[in-house]
Amino acid sequence: MSRKKPIELPEVNFSEDGEIRYLHLGTEWIQGSMFLDRPYDIELEYVQRMFAWLLFFPPEEVKGAHAMQLGLGAATITKFCYKKLKMTCTAIELNPAVLHACRGWFRLPPDDQHLRVVLADAALEIQSDEWRGTVDALQVDLYDEEAAAPVLDTPDFYRHCRELLSQQGCMTVNLFGRSSSYAESVEKICAAFGEDAVWAFKPTREGNAIVLAQRTASRPSREALMSAATAIEDKWGLPAQKWFKVFKPLTK
Q: Which of 208, 209, 197, 186 lies closest to 249, judged by CA?
């Protein structure tokens, strides 16, 4: 009987440039970053955009809501949800060395009653009954050391993501990739969520294209969204008012 070959996980290392520390998986590609003097702020523009779900979520209900991250990276999203938004956080990460780096180099707090890191394959873990219907904000940023395409990008994967969400929940996903097809990925998300539930940003200068999908489709007025953006900036410091120049629903 042959044994299944174990998964070969990349090495984890970091670099620094002035006031910023970067996480790498053994290559030059940046997997995350941190301001050395402001470890719980967000340095990268695309990571800020991963919080566009706040536009659709009642601000008074954010504290204590459940955020789940697929892919820990440098723990930027997890730390912001936990420290700034005061949410209950679950992060799913495959590579134990990434978790070790986040705790040692990127100021990720230890697990407690409001923070839990699960070392597991996200494709399998999200199918657990434990999570179904419990997630208010699902943030998906899954890349290997080459950053060529999302590691998980199938119709079944996105259907499982939708099943995780509460009725008012949203998924944001980073579709950056040098060889991935943005249009094909969006088509798969639309198949799982419905085209009227999908919103998208134009890509950043670095090529990160953030897509948002709602568990329950809605079309807030521009006035309502602008009001929400102002509240997000005032309360949490994210540049939400800038998003409207580059963020829109796929269908009118």
A: 197
- The Cα–Cα gap between 4 and 151 comes to 20
Question: What is the strand order of the sheet 66-70 is part of?
Answer: 115-119, 88-93, 66-70, 135-140, 165-174, 210-214, 198-201, 247-249
Longest dimension (CA), the chain: 64
Residues 6 or more apart whose Cβ sits within 8 Å of residue 23: 12, 14, 30, 31, 32, 33, 73, 74, 98, 101, 102, 105, 106
- Rg of the chain taking only CA atoms, in angstroms: 17
Provide the whole-model pTM: 0.90
Q: Which amino acid is at 222?
A: R
Where do runs of H (alpha helix) occur along the chain? 45-49, 76-79, 96-105, 122-125, 155-164, 182-193, 222-236
- How far separated are the first and last CA of the chain, in Å rounded? 56
- Residue at 122: amino acid letter: A
Q: What is the pLDDT along the chain (252 residues), one digit of tens a residue?
A: 334 444 677 677 787 788 988 887 766 777 778 889 999 999 889 999 999 999 999 999 999 999 999 999 899 999 999 999 999 999 999 999 999 999 999 999 999 999 999 999 999 999 999 999 999 999 998 764 344 456 678 999 999 999 999 999 999 999 875 555 788 899 999 999 999 999 999 998 888 899 999 999 999 999 999 999 999 999 999 999 999 889 999 986
CA distance 20 to 37: 9
